[in-house]
């Protein structure tokens, strides 16, 4: 492998789209928490910690999953020999170190969340991934906690941020179960006992649908509690419809369904931004 291919492989190990998305969600959490963000350095540090922490988790996951990926995803950097397992491990540790450096500049609650998340990322593949449903819950918490982390970075973890965390976590549980259905053949070959393998693909999809329905039903809570006004509902409505469509699509095509769900979750996050903008505009009106 050439140096260029190795550098490209290292970049791919981060899964940059996922890492950047997580950093953006952290910034959204900070914005939803405080309205007009008056601590840009803290928000940037939190986003940086999230980017490198997420990237490190992705790299360490690829390191431990290299045999599974050789079957399920042979184009990943390690299976195609762009990056050696040893280099991937050291790369993950370096990214973890950068995440810690950024996190240590933040308030104590944000530091606590960051350290807990790093431990969860490290233990996910070796401890939780093969347990039916447990790995899905860990990933869901990690996804939703980006909003908590953003709020904690600006000293504000209010009701709106907690609701956003809960909705993101529930939606992510559903999406992760659907992804497990998509990967069931390779996971079974490697001896993993994921939820679809333990109870069957169809029952697992129904559980995913039930969890997603719970998220949809709870989504108007910030409006009902008076935290956000009508602008929140204007954007939330299409997001809810899209989430429902993603869940329905999953029964016919799990791969397509989970991709739709990812986009729908971003639209739902946007509704919280619009909700906070509406509150801010009212305060200045």
Automatic annotation (TrEMBL):
Class of enzymatic activity (EC top level): transferase
Keywords tagged on the record: Cell membrane, Lipid biosynthesis, Lipid metabolism, Magnesium, Membrane, Phospholipid biosynthesis, Phospholipid metabolism, Transferase, Transmembrane, Transmembrane helix
Membrane spanning residue stretches: 88-119, 139-170, 204-225, 231-251, 263-284
EC number(s) per entry: 2.5.1.42
InterPro entries, sorted: DGGGP_synth, Prenyltransferase_related, UbiA_prenyltransferase, UbiA_sf
Subcellular location: Cell membrane
Catalysed reaction, written as an equation: sn-3-O-(geranylgeranyl)glycerol 1-phosphate + (2E,6E,10E)-geranylgeranyl diphosphate = 2,3-bis-O-(geranylgeranyl)-sn-glycerol 1-phosphate + diphosphate
Entry keyword Glycoprotein: no
CDD domains: PT_UbiA_DGGGPS
GO cellular component, one term: plasma membrane
Cofactor(s) demanded: Mg(2+)
Membrane is among the record's keywords: yes
GO MF terms, alphabetically ordered: geranylgeranylglycerol-phosphate geranylgeranyltransferase activity; magnesium ion binding
UniProt topology in membrane: Multi-pass membrane protein
Protein's name according to its UniProt entry: Digeranylgeranylglyceryl phosphate synthase
Main location (coarse class): membrane
Pathway stated in the Swiss-Prot or TrEMBL entry: Membrane lipid metabolism; glycerophospholipid metabolism
Family listed: Belongs to the UbiA prenyltransferase family. DGGGP synthase subfamily.
Domain of life the protein comes from: Archaea
Job of this protein: Prenyltransferase that catalyzes the transfer of the geranylgeranyl moiety of geranylgeranyl diphosphate (GGPP) to the C2 hydroxyl of (S)-3-O-geranylgeranylglyceryl phosphate (GGGP). This reaction is the second ether-bond-formation step in the biosynthesis of archaeal membrane lipids.
UniProt record, GO biological process: glycerophospholipid biosynthetic process
Any Pfam family matching the protein: UbiA
């Amino acid at each position: 492998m050439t140096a260029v291919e190795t550098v490209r492989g290292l970049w791919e190990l981060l899964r940059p789209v996922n890492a950047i998305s997580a950093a953006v969600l952290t910034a959204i959490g900070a914005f939803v928490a405080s309205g007009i963000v008056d601590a840009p350095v803290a928000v940037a540090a939190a986003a940086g910690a999230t980017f490198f922490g997420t990237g490190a988790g992705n790299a360490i996951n690829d390191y431990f999953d290299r045999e599974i990926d050789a079957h399920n995803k042979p184009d990943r950097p390690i299976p195609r020999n762009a990056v050696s397992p040893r280099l991937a491990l050291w790369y993950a540790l370096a990214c973890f170190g950068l995440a810690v450096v950024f996190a240590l500049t933040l308030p104590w609650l944000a530091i606590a969340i960051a350290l807990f998340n790093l431990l969860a990322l490290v233990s996910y593949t070796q401890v939780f991934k093969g347990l039916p449903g447990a790995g899905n819950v860990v990933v869901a918490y990690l996804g939703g906690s980006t909003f908590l982390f953003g709020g904690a970075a600006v000293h504000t973890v209010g009701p709106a941020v907690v609701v956003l965390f809960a909705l993101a976590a529930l939606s992510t549980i559903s999406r992760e179960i659907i992804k497990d259905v998509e990967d069931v053949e390779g996971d079974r070959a490697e001896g993993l006992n994921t939820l679809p393998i333990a109870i069957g693909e169809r029952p697992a999809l129904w559980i995913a649908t039930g969890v997603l329905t719970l998220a949809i039903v709870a989504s108007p809570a910030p409006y009902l509690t008076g935290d956000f006004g009508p602008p929140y509902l204007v954007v939330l409505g299409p997001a809810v419809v899209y989430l429902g469509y993603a869940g329905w699509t999953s029964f016919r095509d799990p791969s397509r369904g989970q991709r739709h769900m990812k986009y729908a979750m971003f639209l739902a996050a946007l509704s919280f931004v619009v909700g906070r903008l509406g509150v801010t505009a009212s305060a200045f009106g």
